[in-house]
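I am going through a labmate's work and have reached the protein record below. What it holds is a sequence and that sequence's fold in token form. Please read both lines and tell me whether the tokens look consistent with the sequence. Do not assume that whoever made the record got everything right. Thanks in advance; the entry in question is below.
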Amino acid sequence: MAQLEGNAIVKEEEQFIDYKRIASSEEFKQLLSQKKRFIVSYTIFYMAYSLLLPLLAFYTDILNHPVIGDITWAWIYGVSMTAMSLWVCRMYIKKAAQFDEAAKEILEKEGL
């Protein structure tokens, strides 16, 4: 069973986990910076791509032009949003696994 003592958790084996020391390490700060850069950039991309459809639909007639028969650019853009969402999810899952591995390495480096 683990107990909380100050800023550290004490396990039954009396192993101290000093989270403040881990959080202040350069590797952990770099990991947080990489994670923040990834999340912010993909969020901006996703929001811009998603908000572009209503902007183009309401304020221009670009999406009204037919591509093949009765299929217009609006349909292609709308369907492409599904593909884009799946791609963003896939990239997030891959990056999250990398971030988890980096966090595990940091903890192992600290002897945990």
User: Anything to note?
Assistant: The two ends are 16 Å apart (CA to CA).
